[in-house]
Write a structure and sequence with these properties.
Blueprint (H helix, E strand, L loop, with lengths): L1 E5 L3 E8 L2 E9 L3 H12 L25 H11 L2 H10 L2 H10 L5 H13 L4
Antiparallel strand pairs: 1-2, 2-3
């Protein structure tokens, strides 16, 4: 997901949908509301302040949310709460979260059991 600027005037939100890259028109760069939206989209690329405590052993600003998806999911499922779960559910597919839960060696059996029960309750599993 990224912001693409064309002709120094128009902003587009570029993201993948399957194998296609989709460009969603956002508007003119001179629009103040658009400037706020661009800031909000850029904030989504970093670990939010509320969850930085989960990544004490790494510089949170250096964590790539796309490349380090499994690392982030493992940390949230092992040490995070429901608010952190909601955050990763907005970032990653349910399939990736469940797959990480099932194959990870870094998530304790106790946490695996809890999240398995929780996700079954929400009819995700």
């Amino acid at each position: 997901m990224s912001i693409v600027i064309k002709n120094d005037r128009y902003a587009y939100h570029a993201y993948r949908s399957g194998k296609k890259v989709v460009h969603q028109y956002l508007g003119l760069i001179s629009n103040p509301d658009l400037a706020e939206k661009i800031k909000e989209l850029k904030r989504e690329k970093n670990v939010p302040e509320d969850f930085r405590y989960l990544f004490w052993d790494a510089a949170p600003e250096s964590i790539d949310l796309k490349k380090n998806a499994r690392y982030i999911i493992e940390r949230v499922l092992e040490m995070g709460g429901l608010d952190a779960l909601q955050w990763i559910q907005r970032l990653y597919t349910t399939r990736l979260i469940i797959e990480t839960l099932e194959i990870s060696r870094k998530i304790t059996p106790r946490s695996k059991n809890f999240w398995t029960i929780w996700l079954k309750r929400d009819n995700v599993l």
